[in-house]
Amino acid sequence: MGLRIRLSRQTLAVLDALLARPGQWQHGYSLSQSIGIPSGTLYPILMRLEKLHWLETRWEEVKTPGRPPRHLYRLSGNARAWAREEIRAAQERRFWKPTVVGQKA
Amino acid sequence: MEADGSGAEGMSVSSRANSLTARFARWVLGYAVRYWPEENRAWGLALAAEIDETGSVFETVRWSLGGIMLFTRSVLSSAWKWMKLPAGGSLPGGADGPEGSSLLPRRSRVFTAVVLAAAALLLALPEGREAIRTVWASWHLYQQSDSDARTLEQLADRAEKKKDASTLAFVALSTRDPKRAEALTERAVALDPQLVWVYGSTNHRPDYDPPQKDWLARLQAADPDNAVPYLLEAYALDPSSIHTLYQHGVPKDADFEAVESDSTWMALMERAYGAPRYDSYFQSHYQLTRAVWNREKNLSPAIVLSGLWSHAIPSLLNLRMFADVKIHEAQKARASGDLKRAEGLLDEVDTFGIRMADGSTTDIEKLIAWVLSRNANKEMIVLYSSSGKTEDERRVTARLDQIEERFKEMRLAHNPATSAGAQTFRRTAILVQGFGTLTVVAGFVALAAILLLELFPRTIRSAKPIWRRAASLLADYAPAVVLIACSAFLASFLPFQRVIAEYRASNYVLANEGRLMDAMWGLFEIPQYVTGVNAAVSTWTFVTEALSALLLFVLVRGFYRARRTVAKPA
Q1: How many domains does chain B fold into?
Q2: ipTM of the complex
Q3: A28 contacts chain B (CB < 8 A)
Q4: Which structural domain range is residue B550 located in?
Q5: Residue A69 C-alpha, separation from nearest chain B C-alpha, in angstroms
Q6: pTM higher than 0.80, yes or no?
């Protein structure tokens, strides 16, 4: 990847959660719950990843009338290898260790 | 592909729906989304859409707070991006179309804001505020404004609380309200009897408002050797004979008799002429003003100067009239051969003139004092010449020459047309007023251009290129002109500021008062010309010149167009 960003522990946690089910679309709230970071921290990370084209997004089709469509996220194909590399490097540096999905960080 | 996490959470919605806190949190987030910056509103909507999935009231509130944080961040980021665009430019997705529309100003909003803030900061410095106050006062012809009156009242209230007699006396001497001056004078003297001189110094110019009798009695009791309290009492009598004495030109015997018949006035003037001292309390007033101005540095020069300029001095007409009565008596004594009495009467006038000149601290009093001495000495020359006292005649002639010389010097020194100091201040004042006016004009132009571009961007973009270019150029360069003009304004004001500082610091009245007057008159000249009796003339001159320039422009343009048409026939 040409562009690089400084990866915080929270960003690594988001990447890790997205890599847990690489091809599957995920909701913001479930991501927040799985890694235990609040919406005010999660969304700026998602916004930054999307700006760098490492995150694919789409709107879910409305299932329940009267409720707004939800936004879905997954890592782009190119970003997955890069994310794995970054996570591995962070673990080697003992900068970050993965959280178990479904547990609070 | 199926998204996860959308099943169980949805079931809890109805149980939480009635919670007031959750409803409020959702309403706040919905409200924020409505005002979310356009460029990333989708993220606001995405975050808000998840709120229905939260598992508890606590989670709902937490999610909503995160949304508010993101909203704040987006607004600030968007505002910063907006600030980096030039005036009239809008962010992508904005209501007024994308940035970079043709013919926008080149400077960013941040640059313009920084330049204008720097100018405002310069003017907000103590030196800047003093310059503004002084120049503003000059445009009000150093007359106190309503704001000055309020400042004086606040000063009086503070002084009353602190029982500060000198400040109360200062306000009494400076206020334009005679009743307020009266009350404050009483209060100041009650607190500090040393301030009794204030009784004789308030509310005399420009409208004569004589001190009360009991005030004058107290002043005379406190300062019995001073001629001034008697002169003020004589002034207060205001006999009608004063007004008729010179109405036929040179007064006749009957006119003098009418004056002499007013025994009260004559007795008071006699006491004044015989008093060993002359002090019109201007020095005391000056020192009081200096002390208060040093404490209250934000006082407008209009307050300070109008207070000093309205200081009461005895009636100069009374002084001259009484001297004429004495000289007339001396002439009669000389005619009847009583030379000793004639000499004594003239000597009284001359001695009083010298005493008054020595004791006076204002130029006008000194001038009148020398006029009295000069008249007495002229008559003395006639007396000695007619009685053959050649030696005395020569002595008095030499003295008269000295008086004439000093008289001439003083008139020259205080004539703005000949005084070098006054000339320098007049020249510098042109710069101060010029740069001050430029700052104001450029400020208004910058404001108008920026507001036009910001409030009516579509109108500007659809206007003719010349108007768009004009608005853009003005928005680009007028703020810089404001900064340069206000720096130049402050730099050119420095000599005036030095004079004011010297005036505040000095204990000696004459030299500093002269320099301050030169400085203030210099500043006053342009406002007086523009707003005074010449206002209509200058306005019409400006209109005529502007119309002439416009006519010339139209004619020249027509001429060149005609030439071009002839040169390139169809």
Answers
A1: 3
A2: 0.90
A3: yes
A4: 535-570
A5: 7
A6: no
